[in-house]
Please model this.
Amino acid sequence: MGLFSNLPPEVSVYEVSARDGLQNEAVTVATTRKVRMIDALVDAGLSRIEISSFVSPKWVPQLADAEEVVRLMPRREGVTFSALCPNVRGLERAKASGIEEIGVFISGSETHNLKNVNKSTVDTLAVFSDVIGPAVEAGIKVRGYVSTVWGCPFEGEVDPKKSLAIAEQLLAEGCYQVSLGDTIGVGTPVQTRDIIELFLASVPPEAVALHLHDTRGTALANVLVGLEMGIRTFDAAVAGLGGCPYAPGAAGNLATEDLVYTLNGMGIETGIDLEKLWRAGQVAEAIIGRDLPGKVHRAGVRSLRS
Ligand code: HMG
Ligand code: MG
Model:
């Protein structure tokens, strides 16, 4: 089979800037500004958007206003909002807010998990048993994240078989999809092929998403590997926002504009208007008040000659 013989007509982009991005900013962005940024993303055509986290405000003060963000976001047909949820307390908050989807999160490496949620992975999975099933019963969709699949900032190399075992448990408990995280952006294409091959031997491709931080500029290369192998959901953050406060050295997510630009060029539909997305990136930069790193964000959608 030739290169790019398995390209799909469309893929789904899962926008994480308002969560993964804002959790990692030194300054806390005002709620109304967050709402303005999310609104611009909806306007650009993003239909799956993570807008906050129901985590402890002591751990992530930047997202302490999760309820307010959910309350203030106008609902639009076909747009799903979600928020991270670490425990039963988070689920109660999610239910009270009326949000339609939550994301549970756990790491493939013990040390990152401990730093991130103060628990072993076994204890975290035990907590999730009281979150995933009850959420689904309450009509809330649940997505799972497995972090540090490509490598851990504390342990270095990580055995992907452990991430697979965790992912299988998350799916068995009721998650509709598991997003595999290259939390610190260390992944390279052959490694990505090996990880995806391992997962697809026991998990259907539609149940797998890729969440690639672009710390070393390899995220898009890894997306191409995923595309070829049948992955159809990719997480991204406008203008390349993103990072985990409990993973030192984790820089921005793959920039949504870079992903959409590349997919557009390959004839793959996302439902996203790239010009409007670029403008949403300008909104993000203005409300955050620092230069953001996305490549298309910085260069523009078109070349200067056109
Ligand atoms: P803990 O301190 O072990 O738990 O934290 P606790 O149960 O003892 O709670 C401590 C305090 O927080 C208590 O308050 C609780 O009531 C409160 P106090 O009695 O001291 O006043 N609390 C809560 N408050 C609001 N909502 C809640 C909640 N739970 C407890 N849900 C805990 C454990 C899990 C809560 C904490 O470690 C935490 O919130 N961690 C979140 C860390 C985080 O958000 N990390 C970033 C997201 S993950 C990521 O970025 C990776 C990802 O992008 C994928 C990738 O890139 O790989 C997803
Ligand atoms: Mg992340």
About this structure: Residues 12-299 form a domain with the TIM Barrel fold (CATH 3.20.20.70). The beta strands are 12-15, 48-53, 80-84, 101-107, 141-147, 177-182, 208-212, 233-236. The two ends are 36 Å apart (CA to CA).
